[in-house]
Write a structure and sequence with these properties.
The chain has 283 residues and is α/β, with parallel strands linked by helices. It has a single domain (7-280), classed as Rossmann fold (3-Layer(aba) Sandwich), CATH 3.40.50.880. It contains seven helices and 17 strands. The strands form four sheets. A nine-stranded mixed β-sheet has the order 3-2-4-5-1-10-11-16-17, sandwiched between helices. Helix 3 (94-102) packs parallel to helix 5 (124-135). Exopeptidase that catalyzes the hydrolytic cleavage of multi-L-arginyl-poly-L-aspartic acid (cyanophycin; a water-insoluble reserve polymer) into aspartate-arginine dipeptides. It catalyses: [L-4-(L-arginin-2-N-yl)aspartate](n) + H2O = [L-4-(L-arginin-2-N-yl)aspartate](n-1) + L-4-(L-arginin-2-N-yl)aspartate.
Length: 283
């Protein structure tokens, strides 16, 4: 398959920083602080002239979340913003598909990522979204849960504060906009290394990506990942693992690993998924 012409912008979240509960299914919208990253989202579309569809399906308070994003994008000069809470009734409606077809890009809010999978996978909306991403200069952005849903294997839930123990993470399929990847968010602030590492051990041929708050990756061609924002993104690889007890370990037993690779990306550094290497930007 040819490389997609669109862009992906997974954001590590920050709008939920005042609500630290591990269960993001009831994440309450609070005031934004990451407008720098959101400005980049608009810039990757058509700037202030962008037509943005904000998908609030993951949120426990979709109307409030939608209003907040309408206000935030409005402050950045973008006035053509529509909020959509996709449900079983409206996800394939004529109006919804018209909005999707007219938009320059989508923005998936935070909340509970399993709602996105339940409501959007295997729908006409999903088919059109993927077709536009593959064949057009179409941007799909998402924060927190909205970023996690982009990957092929998606973390449903998992203990963040435990050591690396077998069985602390539960996975399901994601949108697979970025094949053979696993994405986690709020990576440093919520101590999610262990759950991302186990998710990778379950899917050893994948690349695991942990994105910090107020930080994003701009993915072009389904391959080149450029870092923006104030934090870092961490990339884990299992290809070179020499020794691990993961297969033999019993549930909740500690895991040892020799040879797992880690790369840390910040502004000025990019990463090629196909070549599995970091690329430093020229100044």
């Amino acid at each position: 398959m040819e490389s997609p012409k669109g862009k992906l912008i997974p954001i590590g979240g920050k709008e939920a920083r005042a609500h630290e509960a591990e269960n993001t299914g009831d994440a309450r919208p609070v005031k934004f602080e990451n407008e720098g990253v959101l400005q980049e989202v608009l810039d990757e579309m058509k700037g202030a002239d962008s037509k943005v569809a904000v998908i609030t399906t993951a949120s426990g308070e979709p109307e409030e979340m939608g209003d907040m994003y309408l206000e935030t994008f409005g402050k950045l000069g973008c006035k053509q913003v529509t909020a959509l809470n996709l449900t079983g009734r409206n996800v394939n409606s004529k109006k919804t598909l018209e909005i999707l077809g007219d938009a320059d890009g989508l923005f998936f809010t935070g909340g509970d990522q399993t709602k996105l999978i339940d409501k959007i996978c295997d729908t006409r909306f999903m088919d059109v979204m993927k077709d536009r991403y593959q064949n057009e200069d179409f941007v799909i952005a998402g924060t927190s849960a909205g970023a996690m849903a982009m990957s092929a294997a998606m973390i449903m839930e998992g203990s963040s504060t435990e050591s690396l123990l077998k069985g602390i993470v539960e996975l399901t399929r994601g949108f697979t906009l970025l094949p053979k990847t696993i994405i986690d968010t709020h990576f440093m602030s919520r101590g999610r290394f262990s759950r991302l590492a186990e998710a990778l051990l379950v899917n050893p041929g994948f690349i695991a990506i942990g994105i910090c708050e107020d930080t994003s990756l701009v993915v072009t061609g389904g391959n080149h990942m450029r870092t923006i924002g104030s934090g870092v993104a961490m990339i884990l690889e299992a290809d070179s693992i020499k020794k691990t007890n993961f297969k033999e370990a019993k549930k909740m037993q500690p895991i040892y690993v020799e040879g797992m690779q880690m790369h840390i990306l910040a502004q000025g550094a990019s990463f090629s998924l196909s070549e599995r290497k970091m690329i430093l930007e020229k100044h």
